[in-house]
Amino acid sequence: MAYEALKMRKLWFSEDDLLEPIDWKYIDALPKKVRLGLELYMEGRVSLGKAAEVSGLTVREFDEYRARARVPIRGPND
Predict the structure, then answer these.
(1) Distance of CA 48 to the CA centre of its chain
(2) pTM: predicted TM-score of the whole model, two decimal places
(3) In three state form, how does the secondary structure of the chain look?
């Protein structure tokens, strides 16, 4: 999904609060399944584990993609 389309959806975080901006170009270059997992995670619809499952990756592998894209990690109260 393009950056503009995802921006129109409600994310569980505010980009204004991030220390570094999300790397949207990196996300756009990822395989479709990984992008889908990140999109669902950023929307707050799935957990990190479920996003990894959707992506066909281990949690550790998915978390590496998440960190490289500079998507914040959700805590238990988010």
Answers:
(1) 9
(2) 0.78
(3) CCHHHHHHCCCCCCHHHCCCCCCHHHHHHCCHHHHHHHHHHHCCCCCHHHHHHHHCCCHHHHHHHHHHCCCCCCCCCC
Token pair for 29: 């270059």
State the burial class of residue 3 (Cβ atoms within 10 Å of its Cβ: 0-12, 13-18, 19+).
exposed
The yes-or-no verdict on residue 19 having pLDDT over 70 is yes
pLDDT at 16: 65
Task: Give every CB contact of residue 65 below 8 A, 6+ residues apart in sequence.
Answer: 30, 34, 38, 55, 57
**Is the distance from CB of 51 to CB of 65 less than 8 angstroms?**
no
Question: Is residue 28 within 8 Å of residue 35, measured between CB atoms?
Answer: yes
pLDDT above 70 (res 32):
yes
